[in-house]
Task: inverse folding
């Protein structure tokens, strides 16, 4: 009903615009948002599947790459000729040089296999020399973590980013220890993976792709500046540092991203590598966003053109309606001789013709009414005088109560029990009010008058009004002034319920306290703003003799309480807007509990 009333009150231009927006723009926008979300989702899923395939391909190709140094390490670890060259005691440097010249396997491996860029054998032998193939490990090398791990792992292979002493560059390398002689002496074999071969695998990837060792050091990347850095240096989520194979949603460099991780665990190795591919959501959806933006521009231009057409149509229609409205205003001012002609056979044109016909008929009727008004006025004047005399003679309590009782009985006979109940409540309320004297009455009678009043109001407001009456049983006979609670309840309904469409709850609570009774009347109505509440409190705080002699409502109740019981019984009011109002007062005295 509210929507219909709002639409009826809306001007034609706004109504057509609202209809167009509701019927065209909103569905189009909702459909666009849904399709945009679906498009982004499809693009992200496709990119994710592509990245997963790429990561798997990089893992397989890298696995093939490192298989070469792994095989070479097996051969060298059982090569007795290599062990003899590395560990034999030499009498002079000539023997060392001659032995190195005769052993060409390491150089042959480097020339035959492009997958490796260098081989180094670390064996402690004071009689040997360093030639970048056989190296005497000094304390600085033996203290390196990778060297210690190789010795401790007893022949298992390991993979770490190690600096090449000759070229002073770092590259991913295989490390493993091997027995040098029968007494347990060990050496360490280091085979460098060719970094260019590794980069050629990674450079084919369109998204950021990394190969990371067990210490989260980036040993290879299609972004050269990242190689050698730690994974934590590129501001990835800490969970990615620990996560194993799988896909994850995370934040990289402050951007929402998807990360795909694949484990690369070479056989007979104490550690492995991880292939990590990072794709930013913005990078994936860039092209899709461009398509969406282009579509949005086309849609907006189309909508703008449609809006202009709607506005032109609405303007044409509203002008014709405005002419008809102005003509009606002239007729309303008393100009019955004017007629209007609006072109067109649509509803507005037909309406103007029908209005002209109606105007002629009304003009004829007005003349007839004017002729009969004089006679009717005279008759009504006489009837009013008679009614006044009848009312003056019959309005007294006995006639009023008998009449109400007759109405109630007639409603009861006609089985209109709700009307009968309402009449009975009204009769009871009037009788109790007229019979109220200046003396005190028992609290139960005042509560009954309040209940009767609330039932009458509930007949008016129906489900919008709910009330609760809570009275301590020992206070039923407590003497109180008449009409001391009912005006406060009436005030709660006036300022609470009438300003709230959803209704209100009125609660009356009477509690026994050591010195008498504490009475509260509160509602959940509209409440008073702070300025109004301060004004009410100031008005109630004025001296009783300085106020006007005739008071109603809260002022009347407050004056009687102060005059009868003193300032301690004055009304206390608490209220907040949209929360409700609570009125509290105290009546001294009590009732014997026996």
Result:
């Amino acid at each position: 009903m509210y929507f219909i009333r709002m639409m009826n009150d809306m001007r034609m231009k706004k109504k057509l615009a609202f209809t167009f927006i509701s019927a065209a723009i909103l569905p189009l926008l909702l459909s666009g948002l849904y399709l945009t979300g679906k498009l982004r989702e499809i693009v992200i899923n496709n990119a994710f599947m592509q990245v997963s395939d790429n990561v798997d391909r990089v893992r397989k190709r890298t696995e093939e790459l490192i298989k070469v140094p792994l095989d070479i390490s097996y051969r060298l670890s059982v090569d007795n000729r290599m062990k003899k060259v590395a560990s034999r005691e030499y009498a002079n440097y000539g023997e060392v040089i001659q032995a190195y010249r005769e052993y060409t396997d390491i150089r042959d491996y480097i020339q035959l296999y492009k997958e490796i860029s260098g081989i180094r054998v670390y064996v402690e032998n004071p009689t040997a020399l360093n030639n970048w193939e056989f190296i005497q490990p000094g304390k600085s090398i033996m203290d390196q973590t990778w060297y210690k791990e190789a010795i401790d792992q007893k022949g298992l292979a390991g993979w770490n980013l190690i600096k090449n002493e000759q070229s002073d560059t770092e590259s991913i390398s295989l490390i493993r220890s091997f027995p040098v002689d029968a007494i347990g002496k060990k050496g360490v074999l280091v085979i460098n993976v060719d970094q260019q071969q590794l980069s050629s695998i990674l450079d084919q990837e369109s998204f950021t792709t990394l190969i990371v060792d067990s210490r989260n050091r980036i040993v290879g990347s299609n972004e050269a500046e990242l190689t050698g850095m730690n994974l934590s240096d590129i501001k990835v989520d800490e969970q990615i540092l620990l996560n194993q194979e799988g896909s994850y949603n995370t934040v990289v460099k402050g951007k929402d991203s998807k990360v795909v991780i694949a484990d690369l665990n070479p056989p007979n190795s104490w550690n492995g590598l991880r292939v990590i591919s990072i794709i930013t959501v913005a990078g994936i959806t860039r092209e899709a966003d461009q398509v969406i933006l282009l579509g949005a521009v086309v849609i907006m231009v189309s909508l703008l053109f449609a809006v202009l057409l709607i506005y032109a149509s609405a303007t044409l229609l509203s002008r014709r309606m405005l002419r008809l409205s102005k003509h009606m205003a002239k007729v309303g001012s008393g100009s019955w001789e004017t007629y209007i002609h609006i072109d067109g056979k649509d509803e507005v044109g037909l309406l103007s013709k029908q209005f002209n016909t109606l105007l002629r008929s009304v003009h004829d009727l007005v003349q007839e009414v004017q002729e009969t008004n004089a006679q009717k006025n005279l008759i009504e004047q006489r009837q009013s005088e008679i009614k006044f005399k009848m009312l003056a003679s019959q309005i007294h309590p006995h006639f009023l109560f008998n009449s109400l009782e007759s109405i109630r009985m007639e409603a009861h006979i006609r089985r209109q029990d709700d009307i009968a109940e309402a009449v009975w409540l009204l009769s009871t309320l009037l009788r109790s009010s007229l019979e109220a004297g200046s003396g005190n009455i028992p609290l139960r009678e005042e509560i009954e008058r309040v209940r009767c009043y609330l039932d009458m109001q509930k007949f008016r407001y129906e489900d919008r009004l709910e009330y609760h009456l809570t009275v301590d049983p020992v206070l039923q006979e407590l003497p109180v002034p008449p009409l001391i609670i009912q005006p406060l309840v009436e005030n709660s309904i006036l300022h609470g319920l009438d300003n709230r469409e959803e209704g209100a709850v009125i609660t009356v609570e009477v509690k026994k306290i050591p010195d008498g009774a504490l009475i509260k009347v509160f509602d959940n109505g509209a409440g008073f703003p702070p300025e109004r509440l301060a004004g009410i409190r100031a008005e109630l705080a004025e001296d009783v003799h300085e106020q006007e002699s005739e008071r109603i409502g809260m002022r009347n109740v407050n004056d009687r309480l102060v005059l009868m019981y003193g300032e301690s019984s004055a009304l206390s009011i608490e209220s907040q807007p949209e929360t409700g109002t609570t009125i509290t007062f105290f009546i001294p005295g009590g009732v014997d509990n026996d």
Notes: The first strand starts at residue 116 and ends at 122. Residues 12-77 form the longest helix (66 residues).
